[in-house]
Amino acid sequence: MNSAIDLLKAIRSGRLQDVLAVLDSGAPVELLDGRGDPGLPLGVACFMGFPDIVRELVRRGAKVNTADNSQPTSPVSMAIRGKRKEVLKVLIELGAEIPSGLNTGLSEQEILVARWRGQHYGAAMPKAADAAPDAPVYEEIEMVRCYGTDTSVLDADLIRAAREMEKK
């Protein structure tokens, strides 16, 4: 049994539970690609469009940024090549740097909001058990359908908060 191959198969399947099982069995989170650059598992997850797997790989030590994020094998470039906007947003939330002039397919507003989300809800945010006792508790609400709901006010609040963050 080859743990590297098992990890890549699990990532390609898109099943987070399989990826967790392979990683828990000791598979390395960083594998070299055909050119000898690290980050093959994260690159595959980005290209194929699995944001939950991307988050887990980064949580376990995969590097979001490479020496040059405009290189074709960087996680950012892989998400762009795969036309995976949601994965690209997740990468930005997790701290990925977007090289100037790189066409991401995201609007400036989407990038700004992703950065804001990363600072406020990102990987560095403490879990509820680790949080300070006086820290506010936020409930995440998932809405499957928003028919008839005007979300422009919420979007405006997020954008305003993100712009204020950029000024600091």
TrEMBL record:
The keyword Cytoplasm does not apply. ANK repeats lie at residues 37-69. Signal peptide: none annotated. Pfam families: Ank_2. The lineage of its organism: Bacteria, Pseudomonadati, Pseudomonadota, Betaproteobacteria, Candidatus Accumulibacter. Keywords: ANK repeat. This is Ankyrin repeat protein. The keyword Nucleotide-binding does not apply. InterPro entries: Ankyrin_rpt, Ankyrin_rpt-contain_sf.
